[in-house]
Amino acid sequence: MRRNRSIPAATVVPVLVYPDVRAAVAWLASAFGFVEHVRIGEDHRAQLGVGDGAVIVADVRHDQRPPRGGEVTHLVMVRVDGIDEHCEHARSCGAPIVMEPTTFEYGERQYVAEDLAGHRWTFTETLEDVPPEAWGGTTVRPR
Known about the structure:
There is one protein chain. The chain is an alpha/beta fold. It has two domains: about 1-60, 2,3-Dihydroxybiphenyl 1,2-Dioxygenase, domain 1 (Roll), CATH 3.10.180.10; about 65-143, Signal recognition particle alu RNA binding heterodimer, srp9/1, CATH 3.30.720.110. The protein has two helices and eight strands, in the order βαββββαβββ. The chain has helices at about 20-30, 85-90, and strands at about 15-20, 35-40, 45-50, 55-60, 75-80, 95-105, 110-115, 120-125. A four-stranded mixed sheet has the order 1-4-3-2, covered by helices on one side.
């Protein structure tokens, strides 16, 4: 894949719509540790990174809208280290915690938070490498 400094290098890049791009960038940086890499216009779009992942924050326009209360249409999963500390930091920044940190049989400890526009984020920390067959999954194509 060719490199282009005008777009995030991640293979999959969610584009999430917010009513105020600048407020969203500031909040995501403060609460979840994202870093802004590219700003497009003053309040049009921004490219943010975390680890080797990326997300684009987009403004409301045409048929693009942020989530509506009471509906969950998507979750964005982000891998982190220090899940419990990450959760407490997000909580201290005002993030509603939808699911407290929980350890699952598939080797992950996760929590779910909501951001200022209602997007749901699952943060996950790998505790151990567990084969999917150990918890009822099926490996279809090994990585």
